[in-house]
Structure formats: structure tokens, C-alpha cells
Design a protein that fits this description.
With 90 residues, the chain is α+β, with helices and mostly antiparallel strands. The chain has one domain: Double Stranded RNA Binding Domain. It contains 1 helix and 5 strands.
């Protein structure tokens, strides 16, 4: 189990979400809840891509979150089997 930070920003009428430890895991939505759900999917795909390629997952770095984030939360990644993962709120 890995606990990563998720950061959310507001701007131009949408919420932008990112997992700084996974640069490819970004998403947006009209609400924070929609952005969160989209981020969970993007993060799951990024984790599964790394697992399929045989790469190790990065160690969580809580200090990597941008200071200008609207909200920050911890997201849990549970690798399952060799190439799949589950993502949920901590």
C-alpha cells in the first residue's frame, strides 16, 4: 500500500487535479468530486502502466505538493496482482 498526495486547484470554472508523484496522473472536472474521480482513474492507469513495464512505483513524497493548491488529500494505491491496482481515499 502506498499513500500519495493529490492536489486540487480551481480556475476558469473547473477543478484541476494532480498526483505530483505521477506526472501523467492529471485530471479535471466541473466539481472537485468529478475531478477527484477522474484523478483516481488517471492514477490507476499510471500505476498499472508502470507495473506492466516492470517499473517500481515511486516512493511517496509528501513535500512534493504545490503550495498554491486549493485542497490536498491523501490517496491510497493498492497494487493487486502483477499489473493492476486499486485507488481510493485514505
Amino acid at each position: 500500500m502506498f499513500k500519495y498526495q493529490a492536489a486540487y486547484r480551481r480556475g476558469a470554472g473547473v477543478f484541476f487535479a494532480e498526483a505530483p508523484d505521477f506526472p501523467k496522473a492529471t485530471a479535471f472536472g466541473e466539481s472537485m468530486a468529478e475531478a477527484r474521480g477522474n484523478l483516481y482513474g488517471a492514477l490507476r492507469r499510471a500505476v498499472e502502466e508502470r507495473l506492466r513495464r516492470g517499473e517500481v512505483l515511486p516512493l511517496p513524497d509528501p513535500g512534493r505538493v504545490a503550495a498554491d493548491a486549493y485542497a490536498v488529500e491523501t490517496v491510497v494505491v493498492l497494487p493487486q496482482a502483477e499489473t493492476s491496482a486499486a485507488v481510493c481515499a485514505a
